[in-house]
């Protein structure tokens, strides 16, 4: 962790800054807010982990950054998403298409469904260069081979003419990484990049991301439900619950001394902390879906520290020393 800026010296502008982001969807039951008042930043060369259970709003946040949510039914109700100092929520579609895949790359959750089964691997990667660099197939070919080698795909020349169904899960994920990085982006959004892979391949992909970050100076927003991956990869962490930020701060501090009961529950229920023969603790209940999130703290019905105020008032994300913040009326000491 770097030292805080001296008094009177402005902190460097983050590469990606999200301020008060609120995203809603039109549904049959009316407007449902899926993400509410989300605020965090990703600095130059930094890896930030975005964690939480399924349904917490992680992927919607990522897709909002990339402007991939269909509108309607989705719409940004409030907030600002700034990249390199520009509010990308205000960009027109043409400007956003020029940014997406070029300065910002994204790895999606499931490579088998993200890759086009009717196109060869080489054609799909080269397509990114054709769009963003106006390159023909001949000029793109050596660059495609080079990026495949850099992401650890053996026999790159041979793989160019293969289809996604001919590759293993690990190779498909490496192809997705190659597509995301072929234009040399400054920011990489990795949405659950190792979920469908076995443990050995997971470790290889994570090590690959760390090496590519060092080589390319990447900033990474890593979306995951695995706190062990966060501990290994991320300088800071953002914990989301029911569409809001529950806790944020330097990874080591948050994982060693969580302030929000939800973060503590996630840590306690991690299989990595379980002892053989012991029953794994769980967080009772489930994340309330959008549209059923009532007044007060959304975690109240599952929280061991719940009080009367928790059911009446929504706790703000309150800053603390050391760059930490939590949204809880009764935080852990």
Task: Kindly describe this structure.
The protein is 32% helix and 22% strand. It has 333 residues and is of the alpha/beta class. Strands 6-7-8-3-9-10-12-11 form an eight-stranded mixed beta sheet, sandwiched between helices. A four-stranded antiparallel beta sheet has the order 2-1-4-5, with helices on one face. Strand 7, helix 8 (199-216) and strand 8 (219-224) form a beta-alpha-beta unit. Helix 5 crosses helix 7.
Task: Give the structure's gist in a few sentences.
This protein has twelve helices and twelve strands.
Features:
12 strands; 333 residues; alpha/beta; globular; four-stranded antiparallel β-sheet; eight-stranded mixed β-sheet; disordered N terminus
């Amino acid at each position: 962790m770097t030292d805080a800026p001296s008094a009177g010296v402005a902190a460097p502008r983050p590469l990606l800054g999200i301020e008060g982001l609120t995203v809603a969807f039109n549904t049959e039951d009316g407007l449902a807010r899926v993400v509410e008042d989300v605020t965090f930043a990703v600095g130059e060369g930094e890896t930030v982990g975005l964690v939480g259970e399924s349904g917490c709003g992680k992927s919607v946040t990522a897709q909002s950054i990339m402007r991939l949510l269909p509108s309607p039914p989705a719409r940004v109700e409030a907030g600002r998403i700034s990249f390199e100092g520009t509010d990308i929520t205000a960009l027109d579609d043409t400007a956003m298409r020029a940014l997406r895949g070029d300065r910002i790359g994204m790895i999606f959750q499931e490579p088998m469904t993200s890759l086009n089964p009717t196109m060869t691997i080489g054609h799909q990667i080269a397509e990114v260069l054709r769009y963003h660099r106006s390159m023909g197939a001949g000029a793109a070919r050596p660059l495609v081979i080079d990026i495949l080698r850099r992401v650890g795909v053996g026999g790159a020349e041979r793989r160019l003419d293969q289809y996604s169904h001919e590759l293993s899960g690990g190779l498909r994920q490496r192809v997705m990484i190659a597509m995301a990085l072929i234009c040399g982006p400054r920011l990489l959004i990795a949405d659950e990049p190792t979920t469908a892979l076995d443990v050995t391949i997971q470790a290889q992909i994570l090590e690959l991301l760390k090496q590519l970050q060092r080589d390319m100076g990447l900033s990474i927003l890593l979306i995951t439900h695995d706190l062990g991956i966060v501990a290994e990869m991320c300088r800071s962490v953002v914990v989301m619950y029911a569409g809001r930020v529950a806790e944020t701060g330097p990874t080591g501090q948050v994982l060693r001394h969580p302030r929000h009961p939800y973060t503590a529950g996630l840590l306690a229920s991690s299989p990595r902390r379980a002892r053989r023969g012991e029953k794994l603790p769980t967080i009772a209940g489930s994340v309330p879906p959008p549209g059923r999130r009532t007044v007060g703290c959304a975690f109240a019905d599952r929280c061991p520290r719940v009080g009367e105020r928790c059911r009446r008032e929504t706790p703000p994300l309150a800053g603390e020393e050391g760059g930490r913040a939590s949204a809880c009326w009764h935080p852990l000491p």
